[in-house]
Structure to design on (426 residues):
């Protein structure tokens, strides 16, 4: 059957298909309306009518499903990511989440895939980027952070009709190698060595809150005296200390030439704390009696520091402060932890390993899972996954299990010795 060569009249809202003077088939597909209310149609052209009809049906399906690209100049990946991170993500996510997004966009995604049109980005483009990142020395976790950022940003682009598919949702990120020895909780002997050294230092209770109760760094540094009830031996966790962020205050006329954080006139542009987002994170935690004693002693020492400093003291309600008052910096706190490990003669480890230690000790003591979840601040839906991540089966626990099996199957050790003697009789 010969291909139809004349323009056919269509009802309103239907696509128009016709053969043009250039001997190619053309179509005008209604796609909705522009921002100013005028109709918006997409123009398609193909060498044969069959090819064009197939493309028109595909585009009409995208239009009806709400996944077709909207009118206007197509976004490049770079323009979309920069728009998304500043105007869509920043107002609604936490400061720490935004920082992770911003670094992934600026350092990895825009230089790596930014020139592609967002509606033509393919999963293979992202997978190639991940390989290049690892070849350049990035860890698999860094590539995963870029992948998660791209998946979130492109998912928003699909919801808004700027792309038909989320290429990052289809792409395969690099495999994360699980290293069982990566996190090794501190033993009871190591915790006791740290306790001996902690008692010689300022803010000693700060470290025991981490080692004994598993408080996160932000939770501990954001703690205020109004959150602590020493009479009833518990504390409430309601906010997190944020990492400071600074901008230059020296002015463009006479720049200091330093990074913003070291500018003599630096201006802090981030709030000090934020309220805990999850319901599980807002929790009451019981205080062991020795910690109550440490906190009482710490409050008295802080009062003496305030009196000695006089007008130099920066007043605040924080439990743990700098020598002249004011909130502790997370960066300073981290370096204090490293010095504590070195002075105590304990192996090096992350500050977050103290949280793993606390969770493992709670399990070792037989504390019920529900109570562990409450103390650690884990959501009910993800608590099992978090326990699998944080609670470690240590060598002493395995040996104790072996002893229990021995007693259950072979009986008491003395009975086992008698059996061996009988086996040796002639």
């Amino acid at each position: 059957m010969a291909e139809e060569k004349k323009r056919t009249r269509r009802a309103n809202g239907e696509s128009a298909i016709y053969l043009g003077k250039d001997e190619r088939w053309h179509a005008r597909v209604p796609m909705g309306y522009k921002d100013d209310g005028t109709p918006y149609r997409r123009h398609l052209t193909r060498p044969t009518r069959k090819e064009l009809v197939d493309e028109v049906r595909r585009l009409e399906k995208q239009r009806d499903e709400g996944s077709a690209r909207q009118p206007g100049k197509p976004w490049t990946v770079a323009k979309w990511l920069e728009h998304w991170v500043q105007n869509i993500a920043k107002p609604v996510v936490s400061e720490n989440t935004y920082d992770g997004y911003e670094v992934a966009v600026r350092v990895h995604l825009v230089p790596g895939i930014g020139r592609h049109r967002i509606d033509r980005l393919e999963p293979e483009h992202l997978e190639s980027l991940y390989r290049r990142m690892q070849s350049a020395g990035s860890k698999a976790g860094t590539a995963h952070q870029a992948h998660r950022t791209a998946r979130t940003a492109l998912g928003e682009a699909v919801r808004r009709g700027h792309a038909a598919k989320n290429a990052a949702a289809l792409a395969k990120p690099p495999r994360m190698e699980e290293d069982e020895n990566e996190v090794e909780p501190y033993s009871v002997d190591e915790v006791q060595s740290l306790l001996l050294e902690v008692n010689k230092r300022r803010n000693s209770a700060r470290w025991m809150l981490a080692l004994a109760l598993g408080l996160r760094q932000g939770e501990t540094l954001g703690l205020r005296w109004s959150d602590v009830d020493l009479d009833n031996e518990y504390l409430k966790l309601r906010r997190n200390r944020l990492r400071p962020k600074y901008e230059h205050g020296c002015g463009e006329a006479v720049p200091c030439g330093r990074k913003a954080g070291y500018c003599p006139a630096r201006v802090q542009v981030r709030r000090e704390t934020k309220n805990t987002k999850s319901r599980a994170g807002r929790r009451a935690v019981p205080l062991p009696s020795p910690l109550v004693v440490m906190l009482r002693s710490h409050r008295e020492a802080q009062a003496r520091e305030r009196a000695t400093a006089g007008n130099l003291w920066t007043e605040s309600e924080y439990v743990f402060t700098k020598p002249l008052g004011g909130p502790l910096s997370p960066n300073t706190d981290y370096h204090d932890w490293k010095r504590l490990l070195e002075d105590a003669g304990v192996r090096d480890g992350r500050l977050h390993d103290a949280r793993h230690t606390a969770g493992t000790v709670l399990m070792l003591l037989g504390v019920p899972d529900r109570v562990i979840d409450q103390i650690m601040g884990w959501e009910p839906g993800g608590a099992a996954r978090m326990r699998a991540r944080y609670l470690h089966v240590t060598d002493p626990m395995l040996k104790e299990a072996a002893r229990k099996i021995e007693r259950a199957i072979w009986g008491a050790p003395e009975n086992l010795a008698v059996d061996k003697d009988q086996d040796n009789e002639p």
